[in-house]
Specification:
Two copies of one chain form a homodimer. Chain A folds into two domains: about 140 residues, Alpha-Beta Barrel (TIM Barrel), CATH 3.20.20; about 130 residues, Alpha-Beta Barrel (TIM Barrel). The longest helix of chain A is centred in the middle third of the chain and has 17 residues. Helices cover about 45% and strands about 15% of the residues of chain A. Chain A is built from 13 helices and eight strands. In chain A, helix 8 links the parallel strand 6 and strand 7. An eight-stranded parallel β-sheet of chain A has the order 3-2-1-8-7-6-5-4. Chain A is an alpha/beta fold. The model of chain A has no long low-confidence stretch (mean pLDDT about 95). In chain A, helix 2 packs across helix 3, helix 7 runs parallel beside helix 8 and helix 10 runs antiparallel to helix 11.
């Protein structure tokens, strides 16, 4: 267990992942209420909204209002998602956001073709364009993303060699523009990963790129989220995306209704109980999880919000 | 990952764990329907009911009718729980059951005192009596049980040294009666375990008792069930209790309403995807999980029953 990190960084994605996928309209002030509460937990990075077409994704039509409405707390980075130039322009105009670009690849060519009408090669040309656009605007880029890194509902299994190759390509794209990619996010976008596979893929990337900080974006659709996070921790991964109460899912991935992102408070609980710091107040986070459930109006998948932490039980123990 | 076992044995406890805790009455024929369906999945051990006082646990008042009503399948061991001599007599009288005794200890003296009004020492005297009663009846005993092995809502943390000591005591009790204890079940009765702790406790027992086959009974109340199972697998544990759809909970443990036992189909999914055999047909098991949900009439916590397995997606992949 010597590889477990001492401290883990968690990026909260609940407000973006979660409110995007909810069917019913959620009032802007309630989204803001959750983001403001999350800001008080010790979380330092919160993805709060998505600048996408409000006609296609009605749940995100209030992106600007959300950004304008939150009570920003010093030390907290408020982030947003965008999928194209227009979205990026909106994010810049909104202000208040911590903007970072990334070089984004998808390990499933079928997924790329079905959802974006792109091949691997055309996606690489596109990545060069996107990177140029970030650099022209002075936006920091240090991260690569590989989505569908562990498997794809459209394509099936994804060999580790494909992911390794994409990591090389990502670094090459960066180099071509004088950008050093120092962080890599591996996303299990459609919940194909197992703990053993996390170890294999992370291990093979570490071997080839020992200088790269690896982050994991895990989905819990098949119940493997926390186990996969543990496997990541055992490989020394110290950066995770997560979603309070397990808010969210994946609209593209043929399993609507199933659980989405790995749950923040369950991940924080595991870290703390194993002696790993997160800088997050678990009790406050559990309150946020219950608030999230109240806001969406239906049960959310996280466990610790029902099972409770252990701190109070330890205090009462006799 | 060299310690992962090639084959894992799973004991299904859903019908007993689950129907015991449900508030509403569940018709006997529906319990039987689930047990019969589980018998067709390849599962070889099913705990089907509990011979407890039907006035205190109304959900189990039909224990005899359940045993009499099932369609027994050759190769499947139908098991039951009892808590005292009277329960054992009823199980014997019911017939059809695979009866095995065990030497049962609890790692929390507070839990023992609160729930059974016994100290560690009086519990040991009691264990001798129980063992004599099994032997007098010709009932096989080869297993030790340690409940609350990873922590207790009443007592707090449980040191590994306490568990180690109880394992010694269990083997001593067996030896005193000429009984070799070759298997040890560690139960995380109140869901305090983390993966790191599973490794520590299992590792320290393995070091002292390398001949003992270790089994895990895990609860998912705080979302750690599958991660804890993975940690067990990495320590070479090849025997698990689990509950279809995550049926169940723990009425004694101060967290009613939260998830109970680790979910069988999620565990089977993880094993298969990591190349570990279970002998269980995952698709049939998922059907049983959906049936269990229909029988109890409310959502149950398992993930794979909603997220789906990967076999069909692999077949459809293009």
């Amino acid at each position: 267990m010597s590889d477990l990190p001492r401290k883990v960084h968690i990026r909260e994605e609940g407000p973006r992942e979660g409110f995007q996928i909810e069917k019913g309209p959620i009032a802007t002030h309630r989204k803001i209420e959750l983001i403001d509460a999350l800001s008080e937990t010790g979380i330092t990075h919160i993805q709060i909204t998505s600048f996408v077409d409000g006609r296609r994704v009605p749940g995100m039509a209030d992106a600007e209002a959300v950004v304008a409405g939150i009570r920003t707390r010093p030390g907290v980075h408020y982030e947003a998602l965008w999928l194209n130039e227009k979205g990026l322009e909106r994010a810049i105009t909104a202000g208040r956001l911590h903007l970072e670009g990334n070089i984004s690849m998808c390990a499933s060519e079928t997924f790329l073709r079905v959802n974006y009408n792109r091949s691997f090669e055309s996606n690489i040309s596109y990545a060069h364009q996107v990177l140029q656009s970030y650099l022209a605007r002075g936006i920091l880029v240090r991260r690569g993303h590989v989505s569908a890194a562990f498997g794809c509902n459209y394509q099936g299994d994804v060999p580790a060699a494909v992911v390794l190759d994409l990591v090389d390509r990502i670094r090459d794209i960066g180099s071509a523009h004088g950008v050093a990619i120092t962080e890599l996010l591996l996303a299990d976008s459609m919940a194909w990963a197992t703990p053993a596979q996390i170890k294999r893929v992370v291990g093979s990337i570490r071997e080839r790129h020992p200088d790269l900080r690896i982050a994991l974006h895990l989905h819990d659709t098949r119940g493997m989220g926390i186990a996969n996070a543990y496997a990541g921790l055992e490989m020394g991964v110290d950066s995770f995306d997560a979603s309070v109460a397990g808010l969210g899912g994946c609209p593209f991935a043929r399993h609507q209704g199933a659980a989405g992102n790995v749950c923040t408070e369950d991940l924080v609980f595991m870290c703390h109980e194993m002696g790993i710091e997160t800088g997050i107040d678990l009790d406050r986070l559990i309150e946020c999880a219950r608030q999230a459930e109240d806001i969406v109006g239906h049960p959310l998948p996280g466990s610790v919000k029902s099972g409770g932490g252990l701190a109070a039980l330890r205090r009462q123990a006799h």
